[in-house]
Amino acid sequence: MEKKLPLHLQPIIFGSSDSSLSKGISKLEKEGKLKKIAPRIYTSNFTDSPEEIISKNILTIIGNQYPGSLLSHRSAFEYKPTRAGHIFITYSYTKKIKLPGVTLRILEGPGPIPGDNKFVAGLHASQRERALLENLQVSRKPGPESKTLSLPEIEAQLEKIITVNGEDEINKVRDKAREIAEQLGMLSEFEKLNKLINALLTTKSSKILTSPIARARAFGIPYDDARVALFEKLFIALQKREFKNRPDRNNTITSFRNFAFFESYFSNYIEGTVFDIDEAKQIIATQKPLPARDEDSHDVLGTYQIASSREEMSITPKDANHFLEILQYRHAILLSARESKNPGQFKNKNNLVGQTYFVDMTLTRGTLIKSFEFYNAITQPFAKAAYIMFVVTEVHPFLDGNGRVARIMMNTELTTGRQSKIIIPTVYRDDYMGALRKLTRQGDPDAYIRMLERAHEFSGWIYDENMDEMQSYLGKCNAFLEPEAGKLQIIARSN
């Protein structure tokens, strides 16, 4: 038999018609062990405010006070009060009940039907298809006092179903909603839902769509709205800052190519394409792959082919379509020897690294196109470089080679702005990867920006007509060490 806490230890106690229980509550209230916080609602919690206690226990309260009720309309999606403190339930009558911090909006309507979700004792929640129909009813109240979600929010719910489980699932939603609409007399709401789904599947006019992501799908370019929100966050952080100018010191063909060699070497090393430095020099000098490592050698050659050309490194995207074109042809060069990785083609299956899932393959193009809106508004070369590098890394548009393409895109922005390009040396790999993860997982752009600023400061001192001298400087800075063996040192040079 389940043991219940004594009354004076329960966070929420409800008034009762049972005389003995009612007397017990009154006695504890007089003794100061319980306090009344709303009609027929008591608590033993004297620490939190009545608003906090009601808010934490609101669904239990509804189930007890209104048995057989249904969490409905927008609340069936949100499961909590709106910003205005309203929560909506369907019951046997219409009434507005004000509790501390929460307003119960009771709407007369049919009770639970088969398929509605049993939530807590006495309370069900509208199943997905019923909730969609309820949210397409006419609402006289605006914003957070409205019983319905906004049209863009409803479209986003439908878009999520399509993105995660495809067209078959949204068609099942439509069929189930039709059955419920016939049962509950909600045929006009079903017609609205049917038009929205048709528009999302591009079978009808897309003019009715109001949310950006829904319009994007209707026009064939759906995007990952969560990633776009993250890009906006980075964009805002970059726009708020002023970045130090670090003019490129590698102004001759020789020094530019020397830098490009180490840029290519480290960019591949960080991705696991590991060569001895002399082997890498041999590959570049002869322009021939090592016989035993053909694909790896071509990775280094491809990166160097782009990085060593000042003309190529001065090409930046003019518009969103040009952005896609540049990414694809540069990827085709970088991974020319890896046919299994579809060089020059966006991914045809989803990819992940560790616990990080990247943008869904069906949303790749749309997300890149949408990201370009922020890129276009940035003027500082370093800020553009930091932004575009993260976008490519976060979208991960290809099966392989994404990091190398991202760093090339970053350095083309710096070259165009006559700024020093950036090298991410081996010793700095953990700082680099950690900052990327922090931005991806925690939405923190500051660590990422600081990491790149330090890498830029370091890279600004890498210049020389003599490759051996450049290599010597990099060695003094610990650039070739594994992260666990040392820390990056930035050594200012006198000349």
What's a concise summary of this model?
The chain is of the alpha+beta class and about 500 residues long. A hairpin with a 2-residue loop joins strand 6 and strand 7.
Describe this structure in words.
With 495 residues, the chain is an alpha+beta fold. The protein folds into 4 domains: 1-47, no CATH class; 65-149, no CATH class; 151-218, no CATH class; 225-485, Fic-like fold. It is built from 19 helices and 11 strands. The chain has helices at 19-30, 50-56, 58-65, 75-78, 128-134, 151-184, 187-200, 212-218, 225-239, 253-269, 277-286, 294-307, 320-334, 364-377, 381-395, 402-416, 429-442, 445-459, 467-476, and strands spanning 13-14, 35-38, 41-43, 69-71, 86-91, 95-99, 102-108, 117-120, 123-125, 352-353, 356-357. The strands form 3 sheets. Strands 6-7-5-4-9-8 form a 6-stranded mixed β-sheet. A 3-stranded antiparallel β-sheet has the order 1-3-2, sandwiched between helices. It is elongated. The model has no long low-confidence stretch (mean pLDDT 90).
Which helices and strands occur, and which strands form pairs?
Elements: E1 13-14, H1 19-30, E2 35-38, E3 41-43, H2 50-56, H3 58-65, E4 69-71, H4 75-78, E5 86-91, E6 95-99, E7 102-108, E8 117-120, E9 123-125, H5 128-134, H6 151-184, H7 187-200, H8 212-218, H9 225-239, H10 253-269, H11 277-286, H12 294-307, H13 320-334, E10 352-353, E11 356-357, H14 364-377, H15 381-395, H16 402-416, H17 429-442, H18 445-459, H19 467-476
Parallel strand pairs: 4-9, 5-7
Antiparallel strand pairs: 1-3, 2-3, 4-5, 6-7, 8-9, 10-11
